[in-house]
């Protein structure tokens, strides 16, 4: 078993005692950091940055040099799988991700192959191996993927969407087509995440960014069922350690009992649920990650501190909480405010761990 200098994050996920609440930030490597923008400019476009193991490693480590974070997250994107399936991912400035060949028919879905993680996605595994080496055991490395439903929304809509009109039409008019796609994505995500574990990822997170646009029944049918398939297929122990998995459905606060029942180790919470309620409902089964509104980082450092205190008090004493933002940090955040947030978690949380 490889030694970790700081294993607070893994201990909290396993509900073992910690000295203070571990903290990391969703999208902690990103455009709010000037050093990220410089490395990104050096790489050219975003995907070239993801495909260059040394530069992907560099941007992964940048936030850790600035802040006392308790975990690193692989620098990559959830859309690497659909790209490897041949949909042609590209980024239009200011408009987010797009696909050259979105899916619309059963035949197109039937023709999709499950990508080989060490071949078409070998650049991701190279990044994982490089980052693990360069982390030198400081903190654990989180690997990740999108959920099948969330990946399918981009693959069918052809990019980001506000209404999800095309994927919902497929769900209700051509359910067989969508289920075939979700099933192939569940298999792809499982082999992709397992390859990340073998390459060195010490914890896993599944981002279900768009599960929250579904009704409760449809969430179970089109999103949760396929995350369950992934949880069932994951390597849960490697190199003498448990490999915890966190499921994050944005806007999924009403379904946390069902998410906990998948057998995941932790649930990611956005900011629309009170963490005290979440703990009461599922806190004996899973750890909880979250749940500060990322927009709070625009507030004064004093206001950020008081929000951190409120969330810490909501969770209360003991282990099982990983502090995080309820969604990704945005490019317009002042890096000093991010630092005030992280320091506040460290300082204010000690009294809850005596
Ligand atoms: O530091 C980290 O957290 C690791 C890297 C990471 C990125 N994307 C880098 C990235 C992670 C974990 C993701 C996940 C991701 N990607 C999600 C799930 C989480 C969420 O936000 O809900 C989703 C939905 C995507 C898809 C995606 N990729 C979008 C919508 C965009 C555009 C975002 C924007 O703000 O323009 C991307 C591009 C992207 N992925 C960037 C980064 C740093 C910005 C690229 C750039 O211009 O440099």
Automatic annotation (TrEMBL):
Entries under InterPro entries matching the protein: UROD/MetE-like_sf, Uroporphyrinogen_deCO2ase_HemE, Uroporphyrinogen_deCOase
GO cellular component: cytosol
Any single GO BP term: protoporphyrinogen IX biosynthetic process from glutamate
Binding site for substrate: 27-31, 77, 154, 209, 327
SUPFAM superfamilies: UROD/MetE-like
Domain Uroporphyrinogen decarboxylase (URO-D): 22-31, 142-158
Keyword Nucleotidyltransferase (UniProt): no
Record keyword Electron transport present: no
Family from the record: Belongs to the uroporphyrinogen decarboxylase family.
Subunit structure of this chain's protein: Homodimer.
Protein name in the entry: Uroporphyrinogen decarboxylase
């Amino acid at each position: 078993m490889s030694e970790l200098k700081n294993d607070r994050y893994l201990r909290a996920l396993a509900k073992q005692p910690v000295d203070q609440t571990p903290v990391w930030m969703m999208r902690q490597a990103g455009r709010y950091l000037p050093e990220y923008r410089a490395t990104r400019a050096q790489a050219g476009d975003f995907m070239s940055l993801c495909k260059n193991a040394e530069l992907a490693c560099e941007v992964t480590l940048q936030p850790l040099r600035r802040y006392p974070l308790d975990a690193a997250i692989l620098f990559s994107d959830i859309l690497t799988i659909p790209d490897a399936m041949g949909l042609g991912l590209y980024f239009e400035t200011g408009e987010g991700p797009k696909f050259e060949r979105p899916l619309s028919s059963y035949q197109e879905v039937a023709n999709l192959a499950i990508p080989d993680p060490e071949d078409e996605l070998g650049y991701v595994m190279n990044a994982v191996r490089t980052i693990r080496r360069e982390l030198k055991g400081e903190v654990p490395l989180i690997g990740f993927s999108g959920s099948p439903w969330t990946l399918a929304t981009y693959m069918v809509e052809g990019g980001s969407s506000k209404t999800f009109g095309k994927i919902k039409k497929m769900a209700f008019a051509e359910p067989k087509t969508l289920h075939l796609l979700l099933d192939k994505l569940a298999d792809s995500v499982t082999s992709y995440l397992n390859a990340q574990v073998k390459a060195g990822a010490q914890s896993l997170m599944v981002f279900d960014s768009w599960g929250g646009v579904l009704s409760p029944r449809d969430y179970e049918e089109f999103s949760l069922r396929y995350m369950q398939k992934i949880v069932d297929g994951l390597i849960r122990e490697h190199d003498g350690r448990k490999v915890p998995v966190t499921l994050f459905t944005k806007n999924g606060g009403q379904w946390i009992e069902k998410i906990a029942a998948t057998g995941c180790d932790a649930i990611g919470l956005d900011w629309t649920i009170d963490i005290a309620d979440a703990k009461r409902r599922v806190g004996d089964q899973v750890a909880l990650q979250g749940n500060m509104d990322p927009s709070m980082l625009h507030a004064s450092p004093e206001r950020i501190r008081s929000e951190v205190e409120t969330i810490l008090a909501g969770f209360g004493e003991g282990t099982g909480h990983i502090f995080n933002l309820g969604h990704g940090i945005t490019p317009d955040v002042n890096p000093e405010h991010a630092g005030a947030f992280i320091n506040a978690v460290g300082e204010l949380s000690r009294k809850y761990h005596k």
